[in-house]
Write a structure and sequence with these properties.
The chain is α/β, with parallel strands linked by helices and about 240 residues long. The protein contains 8 helices and 8 strands. Pfam families: FtsJ (PF01728).
Length: about 240
């Protein structure tokens, strides 16, 4: 009997041997290696967290912090993870924001992460549309949960430099990157939006949110590692 691609995958095997719930744990580990996401963090919120591999990494990375707090949120039920407060809720609802803040003791997060993805249909345009809707929701809730100076990481499906997302996130962060870690399959359209040094919510949130919701998260070229500074230049 032939092995499935996952069973031959080094990251799948590594996840099993390391006790991670999914191979996606290595994506966050590699993103942290590249961007030092946990270097100054003690509090992390994991959105769309099931099955919980990113929450496992967060607990591991914050182990040395005496006041560490990791809160995982998902619509689906999750099995307990040591060191993680798990909330079942819809990230588009204000009540979920309130519950997360309560779980955090009223203190804002240093890092908000989101590896969520909608059910894959196999139709590329539809999958990208679903993912863009999910990321829009993640960005909206992030604005209520992240402290100024904090960082945000989220999965995106892309073919290009995602100029609309860049312009949106430049309104909120000093530093914006798109990065595809080695653990992400070469055949996948996924990349990761990495935003650092949160500036706080825009002065006019009511104008920002329709702009966000109306956007398409699609592009036109390869998306491997695009860096965007405050002047809008890409590298």
């Amino acid at each position: 009997m032939r092995s499935t691609p996952d069973k031959r995958d080094i990251f799948f095997r590594g996840a099993k041997s390391s006790g991670y719930k999914a191979r996606s744990a290595f994506k966050l580990l590699q993103l942290d290696d590249e961007f030092n996401l946990f270097a100054s963090a003690t509090r992390c919120v994991d959105l769309c967290a099931a099955p919980g591999s990113w929450s496992q990494v967060a607990v591991q990375k914050l182990a040395a912090q005496a006041n560490r707090k990791v809160v995982a949120v998902d619509l689906q039920p999750m099995k307990p993870i040591p060191g993680v407060s798990i909330l079942r809720g819809d990230i588009t609802k204000q009540e979920t924001v309130d519950r997360v803040l309560h779980a955090m003791g009223g203190v804002l997060a240093d890092l908000v992460i989101c590896d969520g993805a909608g059910d894959v249909t196999g139709m590329h345009d539809m999958d990208m549309y679903i993912q863009s809707d999910l990321i829009s929701a993640a960005i909206v809730i992030m604005m209520s949960l992240l402290r100024p100076g904090g960082a945000f990481v989220a999965k995106v499906f892309c073919k290009g430099s995602l100029p609309l997302v860049q312009s949106q996130m430049e309104m909120l962060f000093d530093d914006v990157c798109f990065h595809k870690p080695p653990a992400s399959r070469a055949s996948s359209y996924e990349s990761f939006l990495v935003c650092r040094d949160y500036l706080g919510p825009p002065h006019n949130v009511s104008k920002f949110l329709p702009f966000l919701a109306s956007g398409s998260l699609t592009g036109s070229d390869a998306c491997t590692h695009t860096h965007v500074g405050r002047n809008g230049d890409s590298t």
